[in-house]
Design goal:
alpha+beta; globular; single chain; 6 strands; Trna Endonuclease, Chain: A, domain 1
Length: about 240
Amino acid sequence: MNAGYPPIMDPPKDKNKEVATSFSYSGIKLFQQCPKKYYHLKIAKDFKNEGTTATNYGTDVHKAAEDFIGEGIAIPEKYAYMKPIMKALNDIPGKKFVEMGLGLKRNEGKYTPCNFTSKDFWYRGIADLVIIDDELAWLVDYKTSKNAKYADTNQLDLLAGALFIHFPRVREVRAALAFVVSGEFISKNYYFENTQKYIETMQPELNRLETAMATEVWNPISGPLCKFCPVKTCAHNRG
């Protein structure tokens, strides 16, 4: 564990075994949903998620937004409901980046930028839209849920912290979850002086993941989504 964090993790069974602590927001959310599912999809990789109607729809919507902002390609009529939001975002001044991959390394509590594809990353995430205008940045993540009822801004926290590390000139990030179906925005502002706080926003969850890595205990969690889980060997899978 890095200095400054509580030593909640039991020692690994194999003292020479390195505990893998690299993570992404989606990976942490998967672990929260079910540690056993995380193990099979992310570590053993003996099962994989197949695309669903919902995930395929989300992919198509993100591609339409990316093409509009990045290439100036008109939004397809079937996604016409997105046009007001996308036009408003496109009108914001500054240099625009679509699908920006951000990576961070951590060494003794210090954070440095790295490529999204770096093998030794600590954290990595993808920002759907980033706009840089001198010391001000805009950060947007598109959501295809029907409403913002279950909005989670932890993803924005991590991405904003990574932006400050990658763009040290930036002093403020204005971020939002853009619900393109309902037209809702969940906004949050971030400031450079709180960078470390944002980056460590999911440290408690990461601690629990590290504990599972160290002890090799991946307990399943039963829930209504179990029947849709790709891990067919789990006793809770009722598919």
